Amino acid sequence: MKKDLLQAYKQAPWRTQVQWVGIFLLIVVAVAAVAGLYLFISGRSAATGRRIQNLESEVAELQRQNNDLQTQLGEISSSRSLNERVESLNMRPLTPNEAIYLEVPGYIPPSGPSLAPPPSIKEERTPILLPEFTDTFIEWISSKLKADTQTLTPTEVQP
Amino acid sequence: MNESMKNRYLMICVIGTVVASVIAFQMIRIQHIDGAQQILAFSEDYQGVTRMIYPDRGNIYDSQGRLLAGNETSYEIGLDLNSITQPETIAGIAASILELDYAKVLGYATMTPGDGNPVYVVLDDFVSKDKIEQLVTIKEDYSKRTARGNEVLPNIDGLLWTPHSQRTYPEGTLASNILGFYSYLDRTGGIGYFGLEEAYDSQLAGTPREVYIAFDPQRLSTVEEVPPGVSLVLTIDREIQSLTEKTLDEAIDWSGAEGGTILVYNPEDGGVIAMATTPRLDPNDYWDYAELFPNPLPYNTAISQTYEPGSVFKVITMASALDSGEVDRDTRFNDPGYFNIGGATIYNWNMGGWGDVDMTECLQYSLNVCMSWLATEMGPDTFYTYLKNFGFDRKTGIDLGGENHWPLKLPGDSFWYEVDLATNSFGQGISVTPIQMAMAIGAVANDGRMMAPHLVKSMIIDGEQYNVDPVVVGTPIKAETAHILTDMLVDSLENEASNALVNGYSLAGKTGTGEIATEFGYSSSETNASFAGWGPAEDPKFLVYVWLEKPSISIWGSEVAAPVFSDLVSKLVVLMDIPPDNVRLSNDINSVGQKGQD
What we know:
Radius of gyration of chain A: 41 Å
Helix content of chain B: 25-40%
Number of strands of chain A: 1
Shape of chain B: elongated
CATH topology of the largest domain in chain B: Beta-lactamase
Largest sheet of chain B: 7 strands, mixed
Helix content of chain A: 55-70%
Strand content of chain B: 15-25%
Structural class of chain A: mainly alpha
Oligomer: heterodimer
Largest sheet of chain A: none
Distance between the termini of chain B: 120 Å
Low-confidence stretches of chain A: 154-159
CATH superfamily of the largest domain in chain B: DD-peptidase/beta-lactamase superfamily
Number of strands of chain B: 23
Radius of gyration of chain B: 36 Å
């Protein structure tokens, strides 16, 4: 009787096969999805890496161009070039007697060229969270011990 | 499913498992054999490359931000032997554009890479951008052509050009004695020689960094940025430097001097505004150095060459005597024309006596006897203590490579004699550099405060500009002494109607004629002619030190160096926007004002 009941609940063979095929396909789809995702991300990261590399070489090229332009400007406006141009324009240096000096109230002569900004003020960041909220128990103990030893000065005598 | 089918499936499973196991085993085994390790090691060479990145060398600017030393792109030309298809075309192009030897290039281009031959050959280096542009044009032209039938189109595949940085000095020889030079032909081991390039070599060079550049796109990451070297902004003004060099060159031509030095110095902060010497090298062609500077000629005489300055040193002696309280400006001295000391006799320049003179006249007539008397009145201890306080026993520490100094002989030294006390007082028997003299006399012009001479006004580090503060080296004399001595020197120039005067400007100064020691003793026909002067006297903005070596038209500093000073200062005041005294003092205009022209 018992044997008969077991036989009554057994899956049909085709149903079992479908289940196995389904599980297999699920695994295949999952693996394909992971592989696809991996390929997509690695492809994107490789493309981004290549783009960064291109941008870096572009930066290097622009820096070289900047140096070249600075040098060209230096050569065009060099003392020798300017003197040649001045002479070709039939100009000559001013003599002290020819100069007229005007008083300009409030005029402050320039102190020198500013080729770069002055040093920035390095502000110390104040932590928003108090140490009580961030310290571990061991850090709290060690900070307490440190604070206690700092309060002791060599001249103090402890009872 | 019958038994036979089951056995078949079982057999397939067993075979499949065995095959898979064998494959897996083989995969693992292959990875651990010696050959696999060698291939793995070999493959690492193709995964990426480790490169040393050299930052751009820092620029050098004058006080107005004009470029004195910078960098420009130049190119290395090479052959990638694996990519060459037409060696003759490459050799022809290299010969016509790069001016290389056709046969030599063809030899390289036809080499078979590997088997002891390299895969890359450098043909030329430091090729200009113009030539590279010609190569690019040719390459583009070849790529646009289309073949007809079996026609073989020309190409220059395998000819490569790689950009790199090259040090350049757009002003050529201007201020080259200050800048020094950088041996840029050595791309990895180049160093700075002389001047600022030597003194600030490590800062200008920056810190080279080793970076790994992966070829594998999966491993690509940003290459760590290598900051450029430190850039320097100088106290030198290019226009004043140019004027000073021109004035010096003309002075040497006119006077027949063998060489010379002119320093324009700011006594208020120690900044060197101009420093002209001869000869001058074009640092772009630094390989000419040995030819231009035969040993022992120093690269920069203003800081490296010591000489006996002569009477210009009397400023220091008088400053010491006044400051020590031995004399005041009204003290009188009866000059008999000679002074006996240590078994020797000191005479004046004209071998005559000048009778009753005050201290201003001692300076005005440049009396050796008077100065010898002052030194002996002070005594060696006081006199040499002042010389040490004025910095004559050491280098000035100026921020240039190659500074020199001559040890100061002191009482007790084996080569010091009593007569040295007298001769030192008028600048003989003592050797100094022009920069030492400028620094010491600068103290008299600057209320007794002696400033450290320097060239660098500010530095640009990581894109931020840091100013360099002036440094007070010492206060060898009191401010009151400095003012009194300045007045005395103004009076002495005006009373003498000196060649150094400039119309409209109050100037203080002193001439110097130093005899040159030879193997037969001091020569009266060969001298060092000097002049040290500053102005405006009551608020000095410049100190000019002129030294001409062995002038032939006259031996006297008053006739040779003083006119050079006057000529330079008459132009300098215009460039520095310093109005004449009547304008400056009556209108109380700032020393730097606005100027216009009729």
